[in-house]
Design brief:
- The protein is α+β, with helices and mostly antiparallel strands.
- It has two domains: about 110 residues, D-amino Acid Aminotransferase, Chain A, domain 1 (2-Layer Sandwich), CATH 3.30.470; about 160 residues, D-amino Acid Aminotransferase, subunit A, domain 2 (D-amino Acid Aminotransferase, Chain A, domain 2, Alpha-Beta Barrel), CATH 3.20.10.10.
- The protein is about 30% helix and about 25% strand.
- It is built from eight helices and 15 strands.
- Strands 7, 8, 9, 10, 11, 12, 13, 14 and 15 form a nine-stranded mixed beta sheet that branches. The protein has a six-stranded antiparallel beta sheet with strand order 2-1-6-5-3-4, sandwiched between helices.
- Helix 6 links the parallel strand 11 and strand 12.
- The model has no long low-confidence stretch (mean pLDDT about 100).
- The protein binds N-(5'-phosphopyridoxyl)-D-alanine (PDD).
- N-(5'-phosphopyridoxyl)-D-alanine (PDD) binds next to helix 6 and strand 13.
Length: about 290
């Protein structure tokens, strides 16, 4: 079942207008959430980012935060999913041709939930390959990467490049050549001094919720971390590399372009991922109390 505007409808009946400005212009926003044991992980943080994205494109979300949470819970219950990945999409809605948002009085609100499919275990033990692609991350003043928008062509073009080089994920540089992020992930690396490094928000990236948790975890574990401006070469000389997002959590990277970083997942990467999983368990326990 799909939650469409105000109710659950069967998948086949979950249809929207060809005049929807989400379809015509990529005008809208979204969030991807992970559900563990029937509980939505970090819902407050995702809701906050959803409202922030909406504000940044001048869109009024047609629901209150608690109504959204209720709708997500209804959707996962209707689909009998305890382990799921949920996508909330809000588009500008249907309206005549033309860019003016006021042509669309009623935003379209959609929740899709899919059963969580485990990534192959080898991805976590052996790590994946990534490519630093030619497609640059959107220039902030043109389209701010902090907006989690439906306008994803920048990332799609990068993904095509990654696929052509048989890589799992594409890493994009920003317009100045600084390392930015993946098409659907943030990136971290451990440098030669053992410092955990990740591109700063000001480079022009999405402020990942997982990314924030990893920085907190680094602090808890007593690891030095640095948010900054890094270059392609920093990746090639890294001791460990990993990518993060809500559904993959912490994914080790063992090759960058043709450079082999290491033979298997790194020690710090595994330590950070274990702590992440503990935090998920603690969250679920606290929720059930
Ligand atoms: N993607 N950067 C980009 C461009 C992203 O699209 C995402 C998330 C992230 C990581 O954010 P978070 O840790 O909050 O999931 C970084 C989601 C998973 C998606 O596109 O479905």
């Amino acid at each position: 079942m799909i939650f469409l505007n105000n109710k659950l409808v069967p998948k086949k009946k979950a249809l929207i207008s060809v005049f929807d400005h989400g379809f015509l212009y990529g005008d809208g926003i979204y969030e991807t959430l992970r559900v563990y044991k029937g509980i939505i992980f970090k819902m407050d943080e995702h809701i906050a980012r959803l409202y922030r994205s909406a504000e940044m494109i001048g869109l009024t979300i047609p629901k209150k935060p608690d109504e959204i949470t209720k709708a997500v819970n209804e959707t996962i219950a209707a689909n009998r999913q305890k382990e799921a990945v949920v996508r909330i999409t809000i588009s500008r809605g249907p309206g005549p041709l033309g860019l003016d948002p006021s042509l669309c009085p009623k935003p379209t609100f959609v929740i899709i939930s899919n059963r969580f499919r485990h990534y192959p275990a080898a991805y976590y033990s052996k790590g994946v390959k990534v490519s630093i692609v030619n497609t640059r991350r959107n220039y902030g003043p043109a389209l701010d990467p902090r907006i989690k928008s439906l306008n994803f062509l920048n990332n799609v073009l990068a993904k095509i490049e990654a696929k052509n080089s048989k890589s799992y994920e594409a890493l994009m540089l920003n317009y100045q050549g600084y390392l930015a992020e993946g098409t659907i992930s943030n990136v971290f690396f451990v440098n030669k001094k053992g410092i955990l490094c990740t591109p700063a928000i000001k480079v022009g990236i999405l402020e990942g919720i997982t990314r924030g948790m990893i920085l907190d975890i680094a602090g808890e574990l007593g690891l030095k971390s640095r948010e900054g401006c890094f270059r392609r070469n920093d990746m090639y000389h890294a001791r460990e590399v990993f990518i993060t997002n809500t559904s993959m959590e912490v994914m080790p990277v063992t090759s960058v372009d043709s450079v082999r970083i290491r033979g298997k997942a790194g020690r710090l990467t595994a330590m950070i991922h274990n702590r992440y999983r503990e935090k998920v368990s603690e969250y679920i326990e606290a929720y059930n109390k």
